[in-house]
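To the wet lab folks,

You asked to see what we're planning to order before we commit. Fair enough. Below is the target structure as tokens, and below that is the sequence we designed to fit it. If anything looks off to you, flag it before the synthesis order goes out.
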């Protein structure tokens, strides 16, 4: 996701994000405004992804807390020692002071906008997803865009914000698979299987066993041997899953001992680490 923008690319993107009619919904535009104002009042030179995340929270804390765990309020306070929620968070402090002393009609003030390259890309990705279904980017779209980048999620994790639920990830869920099978107790299912470790994935390797597989019944118990040594076992319902590190050879043999009803099942998966 990381990309270095030229001065003119940044200028164009910021102009479109500030004045583009079909990009940001009013609530997301206000979130960006809150973040930019808080950056200005805290003497930050540009508004980055973490700053924008704090702006989302200041705009709609309930929505953000649906999707992230952690002390988000503390993250905001640490990132923005000076900040305001509600309507006052949209108005520069100098204007609030003028309004208090002279009346709203006399109040004036402003601040500069300067978005980081990462924030430009986050905003554009949010708008792209929303525009694809005929709408402007909302806070939910911005949250989804954050989840699509490991770099942005790592940045949030370092600040103390983590996802509140497990999300599907193709590289993590599928791209790490060395071997997968769903042995059953029914007749005709082999009691052993072989697979090759071709070097596409590296150690550490992990073997995972769980019961049941999909819509089938759970087995009462299952033992799994890898290359002649018992490495994992599960039982239903006390211990339905097991996971442990294993060593692999170039050619490997798995053996299964299953005890259960007809069509009882387990899932056996071996995962590796991308090179």
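Sequence we intend to order:
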């Amino acid at each position: 996701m990381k990309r270095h923008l030229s001065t003119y690319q940044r200028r164009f993107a910021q102009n479109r994000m500030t004045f583009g009619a079909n990009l940001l919904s009013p609530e997301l535009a206000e979130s960006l405004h809150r973040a930019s104002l808080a950056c200005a009042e805290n003497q930050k030179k540009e508004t980055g992804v973490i700053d924008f995340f704090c702006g989302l929270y200041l705009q709609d804390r309930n929505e953000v807390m649906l999707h992230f765990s952690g002390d988000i309020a503390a993250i905001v306070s640490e990132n923005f020692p000076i900040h305001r929620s509600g309507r006052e968070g949209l108005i520069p402090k100098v204007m609030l002071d003028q309004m208090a002393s002279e009346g709203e009609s006399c109040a004036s003030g402003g601040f500069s906008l300067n978005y980081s390259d990462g924030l430009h890309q986050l905003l554009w990705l949010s708008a792209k997803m929303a525009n694809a279904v005929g709408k402007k980017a909302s806070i939910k779209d911005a949250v989804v865009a954050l989840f699509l980048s490991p770099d942005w999620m790592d940045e949030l994790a370092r600040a103390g914000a983590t996802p509140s639920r497990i999300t599907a990830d193709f590289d993590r869920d599928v791209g790490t698979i060395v071997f997968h099978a769903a042995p059953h107790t029914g007749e005709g299912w082999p009691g052993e299987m072989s697979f090759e470790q071709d070097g596409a994935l590296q150690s550490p390797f992990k073997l995972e066993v769980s019961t049941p597989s999909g819509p089938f019944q759970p087995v009462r118990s299952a033992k799994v041997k890898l290359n002649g040594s018992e490495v994992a076992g599960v039982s239903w319902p006390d211990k339905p899953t097991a996971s442990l590190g294993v060593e692999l050879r170039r050619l490997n043999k798995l053996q299964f001992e299953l005890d259960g009803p007809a069509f009882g099942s387990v899932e056996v998966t071996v995962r590796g680490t991308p090179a």
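Structural context that might help your review: The chain is about 40% helix and 25% strand. Residues 26-41 form the longest helix (16 residues).

Thanks,
Computational group
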